[in-house]
Amino acid sequence: MLKKLVEFKVGETGLIKKVEGEGRLRRRLFDMGVTPGATVYLRKKAPLGDPLEVTLRGYELTLRKSEAELVILEVEDEK
Length: 79
Hints:
Layout: E1 2-4, E2 13-19, H1 23-31, E3 39-45, E4 52-56, E5 59-63, H2 65-68, E6 71-75
Antiparallel strand pairs: 1-6, 2-3, 2-6, 3-4, 4-5
């Protein structure tokens, strides 16, 4: 099931399938390691949903809601 990162609930894990957007914003996400094939775990979400804290490639990363809207992931099944 495909889902945007902004729609994830705390504790969910997914595999990045696509990064939307263009120009500087897309390049910035790629530079931070937000690339197709990477696994993302949503650690925390601020009360109003902005920002989000994720674990990606072994480090913690904070993303704005507008950036998380651009990341499409495949949700990993709960075990």
